[in-house]
Each structure stands twice: as structure tokens, then as C-alpha cells.
Write a structure and sequence with these properties.
Layout (H helix, E strand, L loop, with lengths): L1 H28 L7 H21 L1 H22 L1
Length: about 80
């Protein structure tokens, strides 16, 4: 029982931390002043792509490739979403 309560509290605190991070990034980088979680999602996707690419071919190529991949995904989402 104690393990379950601690796990639930850890999950809740982690979820609140992610919410604060995404809303802070959105409020800082948003041009419309509207809270939009899609901005933070694309930052997260970019960080994951940078990590995945850097583990395969190195840091500096990942610094160029990851933003291009996220930009392409963003363009597809903007066009069709």
C-alpha cells in the first residue's frame, strides 16, 4: 500500500512538472498569448530526434538534422492537421 501511494505521488509530481515546463515554454514562445501544448510537444520531439541522431552519427550533425526533421513534421501537421 505504501509503495502504491509513493508511486502515485511521484507520478503526480512528475506530471505537474511536465505541465509547468510545457506551459512555461508555450507562454514564452507563443506569439498569440494562448496556451498551446503543441509547441512544447514539438520541442520534446526535437529533443528526442537530437538524442537519437546524436547517438548514431554525433552531436554536431544532430544539431543540424533534428531541427530540420521537426520543421518538416511541423509543416505536415500545419498543412494536414
Amino acid at each position: 500500500m505504501e509503495f502504491t501511494v509513493i508511486t502515485l505521488l511521484n507520478g503526480l509530481s512528475y506530471g505537474l512538472l511536465l505541465f509547468m515546463l510545457s506551459s512555461g515554454l508555450t507562454l514564452i514562445f507563443s506569439m498569440m498569448g494562448v496556451l498551446n501544448f503543441a509547441h512544447a510537444s514539438f520541442y520534446m520531439i526535437g529533443a528526442y530526434f537530437a538524442y537519437a541522431v546524436s547517438s548514431q552519427i554525433g552531436f554536431w550533425p544532430a544539431l543540424v538534422i533534428a531541427p530540420l526533421l521537426v520543421g518538416a513534421i511541423g509543416a505536415v501537421v500545419e498543412r494536414y492537421g
